[in-house]
Amino acid sequence: MRRPALCVTVGLGAGLLGGCGGSIPAVPGPFPAATPATAKAFAAISTAGGTITFPAAAGYGGAFEYSANNAAGIVSVALVTTTSEIAELTSQSIPGTPLAAFEFTLSQSVTFQDWQGLLTTITIPRGIATAGRTFDEYGYDLTANTADGFNPGTVNGQTISFTVSSGSVTLQNHRYLLVLTAFN
Question: Is the pLDDT score of 3 beyond 80?
């Protein structure tokens, strides 16, 4: 059974995730299998900007910092964090070892003035060793059935941070998925 990778998924066709190459250090030992878990929550997008926190599942969590935007009225966001298989990705080739996935669905399209990147930070369980390993997030627009690139992470203890971009970005009222993957 293929576990989902933590994929920063934003199908905008605008290259929301910038790819970066690099070598993958060899570290012995497999990643511990996560117990399949799913957590769901709802949040609202503020026109002033803010932070949306994804619900924690099996020790995985994440935060998305977003800028001021053109949200009309209340824009709700359905959030899901899971370590279970994502059916739509079974045919996708996800590099590395998928660890967890973060899904979000907007109730309407929103244009953000400055793109902060999805997810801005991800926390991982204490049982996942980070020394000598690399972590990437891969993005997918499940509504459009497109892969939207990847973003390499920077590890600090059990928190992985991802670079932010500049410029405006419009997210449609689509179902997006971000998959966190790890490399030995």
Answer: no
- pTM equals 0.80
What digits encode the pLDDT tens for the residues 106-151? Answer: 999 999 988 766 678 999 998 888 988 999 999 899 999 888 888 8
Q: Would the pLDDT of 176 be above 50? A: yes
CATH number at residue 72: 2.60.220
Q: Which domain holds residue 139?
A: 38-174
- Whether 183 is in a domain gets the answer no
CA distance 98 to 130: 15
Residue of 18, 17, 69 lying closest to 45 (CA atoms): 69
What are the two backbone dihedrals, phi and then psi, of residue 88, each rounded to the nearest 5 degrees?
Answer: -65, -15
Structural domain total, the chain:
1
